[in-house]
Amino acid sequence: MKRALLVIAKRPAAGQTKTRLAPPLSLEQAAALYECFLRDTLEVARTVPKMTRFINYLPHESENYFRSLAPDFELLLQTGDDLGARLDFALTHCLTNGFERAVIMDSDSPTLPADYIARAFDELEEQDVVLGPCNDGGYYLIGLKKPAPRLLREVKMSTPFVVRDTLELARQENLRAALLPEWYDVDTVNELAQLRAELENGKAEAKWTHEFLKNWRLETGD
To answer: How far apart are the C-alpha atoms of 190 and 182, rounded to whole Å?
Structure first.
């Protein structure tokens, strides 16, 4: 069975990535932290066996950056006017080009357990769609075994109702849906504090992110 795992990512750039974390970070630090998130996410993806791994990237001129960052990943340019359209394009591309299961995940959850990703593919043995819910109402991954454009293009993203609305559309489409355990992505200062505490207490592991936060703490005296 051919399986595709996609990590959606942007090239880190000051003022364009993780801007809600500035302050307390500078815009340059926020971009550097996002690169650590991305590196740790790719490490998590590498531990999930028996699949083809993609970086679903933006902007288009960043191909060389991502090819250098992760030469073991395939590259797929994000295509579409908004996030839902881009997610639909990526999943449909894989599912209409020989893959029988496709899962796409964010790059904002550097401590996500690899087991959750593996479970997503397991759920797709019996279910049509699988969601990894975040505690803010969105999701950290979505997986399909056949294209389902409505679930992505007709949901308003970045609201507290993304999972709820996606499940309702799945019901309307007569698609069987499963939920993974809840996790969190890091978009806000409070989520950053949670991440830092878990890393410092040994409750999670993310090598690149942990090193960045340790150094930042030393610089600020925080």
So the answer is: 17
Please tell me the distance from the alpha carbon of residue 119 to that of residue 113, in angstroms, as a whole number. Answer: 10
Helices (H) and strands (E) in the chain, counts: 8, 7
Which residue ranges form the domains of the chain, and what is each CATH number?
A: 3-220 (3.90.550.10)
Closest CA to 76 of 34, 104, 46: 104
CA 16 to each of CA 19, 20, 68, 124, 214: distance values in angstroms, whole numbers, following the listed order:
6, 10, 21, 34, 23
Give percent above pLDDT 70 in the chain: 97
State the Cα–Cα distance between residues 15 and 75, nearest whole angstrom.
Answer: 24
Q: How far apart are CA 38 and CA 42, in angstroms?
A: 6
| Token reading at 159 | 């609201």
Following DSSP, what letter does each residue of 81-143 receive, concatenated?
Answer: SSHHHHHHHHHHHHHTTT-SEEEEE-SS-TT--HHHHHHHHHHTTT-SEEEEEBTTSSEEEEE
C-beta of residue 132 within 8 angstroms of C-beta of residue 140: yes
- DSSP symbol at 3: E
Q: What is the CA radius of gyration of the chain?
A: 17
Between CA 45 and CA 105 the distance in angstroms is: 9
Orientation angle between helical segments 207-220 and 27-46, nearest 10 degrees: 160
pLDDT tens readout for residues 119-144: 999 999 999 999 999 999 999 999 99
pTM: 0.95
Euclidean distance between CA atoms 65 and 116, whole angstroms? 28
